[in-house]
Amino acid sequence: MVIVESAGVVKRFGSTLALDGVDVTIGEGITGLLGANGAGKTTLLTLILGLRERDEGDLRVLGVDPDSAGPEVRQRLGFSPEHHHLPGDMTAADLVAHIARLHGLPRVQATQRASDTLWEVGLGEERFRPIGTMSTGQLQRVKLAQAVAHHPELVILDEPTDGLDPMQRTDMLALISRLAAEHGINMLISSHHLTEVERVCTSVVMLEAGRVARAGRVSDLTVGGAGLVVEVYERAADLAAALSGAGFEARAEDDEVVRVANAGEARGAESACADAVRDAVADLGLGLRSLLPEHVSLADVFTSSQPEGGGS
Prior knowledge:
The chain has helices at 41-48, 70-75, 92-102, 107-120, 136-148, 166-183, 194-200, 218-221, 236-245, 269-284, 298-305, and strands at residues 2-13, 16-27, 30-35, 56-61, 77-80, 154-158, 186-190, 203-208, 211-217, 228-232, 249-252, 257-261, 288-293. A hairpin with a 2-residue loop joins strand 1 and strand 2 (16-27). By secondary structure, it is α/β, with parallel strands linked by helices.
């Protein structure tokens, strides 16, 4: 199922070109939206939400055009903003119920959903506390609760771990993954924490200067021809020497691990590399423990998509 699809989307603010022909297809699952400040992430989110109209191009969100069906789109979406400017005198339960009612739920159902969802995000015992007395971690959970309480088809989370310490970020990511899986909710997460996106997202869209620089499944982007990691039981140096003699770039990390770079990016390079490893292991009489693609980090992929001197 296609959740968001755009073709040639352009958005200008006066003389500033915020989005310059964005072509992207976002499917089911959890997708990360990455980009340096000014890359166009926030602008794209506002177009998806139907809060602004694009200047050119086509955009479909859950199959409809948000320019002409903004209220219909927003009823099927959940949104957690980056800011923490929530009404301090309201309780968490009242705020979540209020947002649920804005999305079309009847009063009684909205109240029940608010209570249930706050328990799900770990704020059940705090649900009647005024929001103004809550910590940053609790505020992030309140924002998540109000975004998912009405069981939307797509939830947009803008920097959901901002202001959290490392342990809190880990807990928040686990919570996001669990809610997405248990309720079948698709999520679009805008974040500058690349390692977090890699941990929780199935796909990613990278923006640079208003254009899509890279997009695809995280597993595909972080494998792509990097090479192979070979684990043997002993004599890794001998294996590395044999592979180097066969024309491959190979190095032994210790007595059991060898990293081998593919001989170029041509089709079949990885298969040829694996065949060479197999032959060398057999010739040397070594025991092969594992043979796996070498992953590059999402941060490396993001950096490689930036122009010379570009930000991260």
